[in-house]
Amino acid sequence: MRRVLRFAAASVAIACLVLALKLGAWWLTGSVALLADALESVVNVAAAAAALLAVRFSALPPDANHPYGHAKAEYFSAVLEGALIIVAALAILHQAWGAFQAPRAPEQAGLGLMVSAVATGLNAGWSWLLFREGRRARSPALLADARHLLSDVVTSGGVLLGVGAVALTGILWLDPLLAALTAVNILWSGSKLMRESVGGLMDEAVEPGLLSRIRGAVSTTAEGAIEAHDLRTRHAGRLTFIEFHLVVPGSMTVDQAHAICDRIEAALKAEIEGATITIHVEPEGKAKHHGVLVL
Q1: Do 30 and 106 touch, CB atoms closer than 8 A?
Q2: How far, in Å, are 193, 200, 228, 255 from residue 206 at the CA level?
Q3: Residue 26 — very low, low, confident or very high, per pLDDT cuts 50/70/90?
Q4: CA–CA separation, 225 vs 133, rounded Å?
Q5: Which of the chain's termini has less CB crowding within 10 Å, N or C?
């Protein structure tokens, strides 16, 4: 968790540096497309700060008021980031409309594009590192930040090419058009990010591939039980909650049933990092499908 916190703190510093560079590129050129790129970086700074707070809060241990821990705090950060992206997109569209009505040629285009390219390179490298760390730590906050930065890199690349084309061709309406396209792209990414984060807050079941691995782990380690049923799963940040009922023969002792549960839990934890497992043991009269070991 300390490693995740360090990455979240570094994200704030990188976002501030990139914002300064992009504002410098806009100041040099006066390009509304580069202004749009800078406005998206304002969102990056706010979102990175929110992610840092969320990661710090999610690291708190379970307590009397939060017996399942605080891992879901990271989803709130991701939802906030999605909302900020949408606000930024609307602001960019407003600026683009004004530029369509009164277009002007960018100034010092070469120097401004060079500064913006450095900022885009920083974002690209940091996005790659965040994806790697976010997947390793299963951190929704880091992954949300990585996805947004990747979207920023793509749009920034398009803006760089477009502003360069404006400077070379003198077609001034390309500049506000690029700003508008940038806004539409980040609006799409923001809405997708919010949908995924809300899914986590609503306790969506794990994806089919992971569910199949869970079933396989239970099936191969439940020897001695009659069946398992009513499997329920959900994600909460880096944690995966797994619950199911395990039916055992009525003649089995508590120690024997407990040994089966221990074996299943060990297999699931070896298969899935951050697994939190609850098994409800039931007598054979509760079986739903006789003759089937595990559902």
Answers
A1: yes
A2: 17, 10, 18, 31
A3: confident
A4: 39
A5: N
What does the block give as tokens for 86?
A: 């949408």
**pTM of the predicted protein model:** 0.57
